[in-house]
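Minutes, project huddle
Topic: does the predicted pose make sense with zinc ion bound?
PN asked that the exact inputs be recorded in the minutes so nobody has to dig through chat later. Recorded below.
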Amino acid sequence: MDQEKIKEGVKLILEGIGEDVGREGLADTPARIARMYEELAGGMQMDAGEHLGKRFHVEGSDMVMEKDITFYSMCEHHMLPFYGKAHIAYVPTDSVVGLSKIARTVEVFARRLQLQERLTAQIADAFMENLAPKGVMVMIEAEHMCMTMRGIKKPGSRTVTVVTRGVFDDNRDLQDRFYRMLGR
Ligand code: ZN
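Predicted holo structure (tokens), as shared on screen:
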């Protein structure tokens, strides 16, 4: 990541809104924001395969669900946060991943500029590619700051996206089970 470019960019925004970039409170802001982006956009340097590659063999193929995974991302249209919960269920073929790796996979794709629809699909595709389950279903519920602190200002409204792959695609029973396990 090019820290100098980020610093320059932040300085220009501050000047653009009419701030005095030399005043005490702002002196370290460009450098601080540049360091912050190492974390907020750090997913671009991460590989989901690394996390989903650590598998455990299992017999049988019962649905595994990890729900209420808290995540923070940024919308690519406004560079404002959107955040909420991701719920992931998959039907293993012959292997499962550690539960913490599921949350790590969400972070890989959340920590970059995103669209909620793409985030949902990328998580599902990463499972299909790396774990080769019989199918996966991903649901994300999120609040978008670009809808709550600006524009139409609807605090508390949530955007819900759902993606299915494999056996979940045309199996209503499996989908219903997903919502039941979620408590919906
Ligand atoms: Zn936005």
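Observations noted during the meeting:
- The two ends are 41 Å apart (CA to CA).
- The CA atoms of residues 43 and 108 lie 4 Å apart.
No decisions taken; revisit at the next huddle.
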